[in-house]
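Model it.
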Amino acid sequence: MRQRRFSVSSRAVIGALGLVGAADYIVRRWESPTLAAVGALDETAHVCTGVLALSALGETFELPVVGAVLAGSVAIDLDHVPAVLGSDVLTLPGATRTRPCTHSLPSLAVLTAAGLLLRGTPRQLLLVAATAQALHYFRDITDPSGSGMPLLWPRSDRVYSIGYGWYRGTLLALAAVALSRRKLRRP
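Modeled.
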């Protein structure tokens, strides 16, 4: 059976870049946004980051690969649910503005190892999802709020953060690669 394919156009690349910029601008300028609003904007930006990375690799993809990118881009944020429900089970002791401790390299290592243990399409899809999760981490570690991530948990409670410029520059580079690939393929 033939797989359905999904194409990422130049317009989609520009749209994804614009959505990330708009989402981040709104969150930075908004006086007191609700958690739901910030979450919706952030998840949109995570999905767009995955789409930009995918579009830099090519133009047309099998639907399961696109699904793995989308799932890997946002699934790790399910670890925020306990805090939203009032539990601190995944919160670092004494932490006030950091991500859950499962936003760490061991979580990414488990997903990657699971992918490496499999063969064929499941292996490919889990490794694609792990790559998308790594991109999620990259966005989170460059969060302008400086909340950072506990990357080495449980070995260390230290929260890591780098400048937002790294993220912005990476997105611009991904978009430039994606757009140039599309321009070179057109007559």
